[in-house]
Amino acid sequence: MSPLLNIVYEDADLLVVNKPAGLVCHPTKGGVYSSLISRVRLFVGEDIQPQLINRLDRETSGLTLVAKIPECARELRLIWEKREVLKTYLGIVHGHMAADEGTIDAPLGRDAASAVAIKDCVRPDGLLSSTSYRVLNRFSRSAQPYSLLKIEPRTGRKHQIRIHLAHIGHSLVGDKLYGGDENLYLDFVQFRLTDAQRERLLLPNQALHAGEVEFQWRGQEWHFTAPPEDWFLQFAGAEAHGSSAPP
User: Fold this and answer.
1) What average pLDDT does the segment 9-14 reach?
2) Which of 46, 49, 86, 193 is the most buried (most CB within 10 A)?
3) What's the mean per-residue pLDDT of the chain?
4) In Å, what is the CA distance from 171 to each residue of 57, 97, 153?
5) Mean pLDDT of 130-134
6) Tell me, what's the pLDDT at 32?
7) d(CA 17, CA 215)
8) Residue 122 CB partners (closer than 8 Å, separation 6+)
9) What is the DSSP annotation of 124-137?
10) Helix (H) or strand (E) run with residue 240 in it
11) Which residues are catalytic?
12) Residue 5 contacts by C-beta under 8 Å, 6 or more apart in sequence?
């Protein structure tokens, strides 16, 4: 493993990494190690201008594809734009899901009532959005119920998985923005999150991991998988180990 990146795959055109939770994709003022693309630039060197094909929220871990050459970037972005990619996530939510599987169809748009500018919500005039899920395991911690889910977003809206799961009453464990108290997010970004607030969140990051990506490209099938981080696995239990691959 590179000290800069957790590399899943690399060739002359493409780099696939397992992004850690807590790392933003784009540069910040925090230094050259503070974003994924900055770390990639250090890794590939000055002669290459890498481009991110997909992006994940700061607290979401998992597979991120990086094109090393413009041709690769154009080809893969077209595949993403055409929605010809199967993306599978693992998520841990509060509560025991009643149904073993289901699809959430709910339009998404800006949450005008929120103090957080980036927050969206389910609203009738929003963009059509669809998320499917399947329960992998129902379990309890300290007498509290949780469910481990395999999740497939059918559309690619901002914060889609997080909003849809919260909308049906099963927010992601550790979600500071959509978990029911957005003050947790506001305090987090202002670096004033207290120990008591961290204890309420249960986990250091939201329990969402982009574990699998599959698509057709250049005449062949591409299929990448990556495991969640240890804190996710420890909370979810043995059922999460190996569950990023198809059952």
Assistant:
1) 97
2) 193
3) 93
4) 16, 11, 16
5) 98
6) 66
7) 16
8) 106, 107, 108, 163, 164, 167
9) TTSB--EEEEEEEE
10) none
11) 57
12) 17, 39, 40, 43
CA triplet 55, 69, 71: central angle to 5 degrees? 95
* 245: confidence class by pLDDT, cuts 50, 70, 90: very low
**Residue 169 falls in which region: left (phi positive, over 0), alpha (psi -120 to 50) or beta:** left
Contact assessment for residue 80 and residue 53, using Cβ atoms and an 8 Å cutoff: yes
Give the separation between CA 67 and CA 84, rounded to whole angstroms. 17
Answer for the pair 201, 174: CB distance below 8 angstroms, yes or no. Answer: yes
The pLDDT, as a whole number, for residue 237 is 83
Q: Which residue has the tokens 């929003």?
A: 126
Distance, CA of 176 to CA of 160 (rounded, Å): 15
Q: Is 99 exposed, middle or buried (0-12, 13-18, 19+ CB in 10 A)?
A: exposed
Tokens 């169809």 label which residue?
105
Q: Is this structure's pTM higher than 0.70?
A: yes
Task: Give the other-Cβ count within 10 Å of 55's Cβ.
Answer: 15
Which residues have a Cβ under 8 Å from the Cβ of 73 and sit 6 or more positions away? 51, 53, 67
pLDDT attached to residue 213: 98
